[in-house]
Design goal:
The longest helix is centred in the C-terminal third of the chain and has 18 residues. The C terminus is likely disordered. The radius of gyration is 19 Å and the shape is globular. It is an alpha/beta fold. A five-stranded mixed β-sheet has the order 3-2-1-4-5. Helix 5 packs parallel to helix 7. It has one domain: Ribonuclease H-like superfamily/Ribonuclease H (Nucleotidyltransferase, domain 5). It contains nine helices and five strands; from the N terminus they run E-E-E-H-H-H-E-H-E-H-H-H-H-H.
């Protein structure tokens, strides 16, 4: 049986186009398969100024002086890989984590460093939607802000710092996991589905 660890991660980017923008910050919290924390770390990442859009710079608080001594992406990726426990499958987890994975996959490939993550992902957006469906709550948006606010963990905006967002994602994930207690299917299934069950059983 495979053993898992999770890397709750968040990246900030110079924009949303992996072909045109660089990773500017990474935050990672490593947990075991029961969400017990093992380690955490964050990095500013040296990025090419021409690959940081003004809009993104404003969102994540880009300051040339703060980023002047940031390590290069190759060093950051090497340190990320070293953070993980050995001999287990590392599953990336986060909010809209496919975007983070897209940039990280490209960076690892470009640096010719072995990619440390499994091909599965755990995404808060899916869990939040599942909880809304089970609880009968409306889904206004699938954002971290929406999920964390609904959980009572956030008042106001998110900080848009990588480790802060990774931490908020993990705490929000824990919140909804704790509330997805087992219930009878008849208590949560939509009425139309329940009405079709006897007919389906006869087929």
């Amino acid at each position: 049986m495979a053993e898992f660890a999770f890397a709750f991660l968040d990246c900030e980017f110079g924009g949303l186009d992996v072909e045109r923008h660089d990773i500017t910050e990474v935050g990672v919290i490593v947990t075991d398969d029961r969400l017990r924390e093992l380690d955490e770390k964050s990095w500013r990442v040296a990025a090419r100024p021409e690959r940081i859009s003004p809009e993104a710079a404003k969102i994540f608080g880009y300051d040339e002086a703060l980023w002047a001594k940031a390590p290069p992406i190759r060093q950051v990726l090497t340190e990320i890989s070293a953070l993980f426990p050995k001999g287990v499958t590392i599953v990336p987890a986060g909010q809209n984590v496919r975007m983070d994975v897209l940039f990280l996959e490209r960076a690892y490939r470009n640096c010719e460093i072995p990619y440390p993550f499994d091909y599965h992902v755990i995404d808060l957006a899916t869990l939040f939607y599942s909880w809304c469906l089970v609880a009968g709550e409306p889904v206004g948006a699938l954002s971290l802000r929406q999920a964390a606010t609904r959980a009572g963990l956030l008042k106001g905006g998110t900080a848009h710092r990588a480790l802060d967002d990774a931490r908020l994602t993990l705490e929000t994930f824990r919140h909804y996991i704790a509330r997805l207690a087992a219930r009878e299917p008849s208590a949560v299934a939509p009425a139309a589905l329940r009405e079709s069950e006897p007919e389906a059983a006869d087929s």
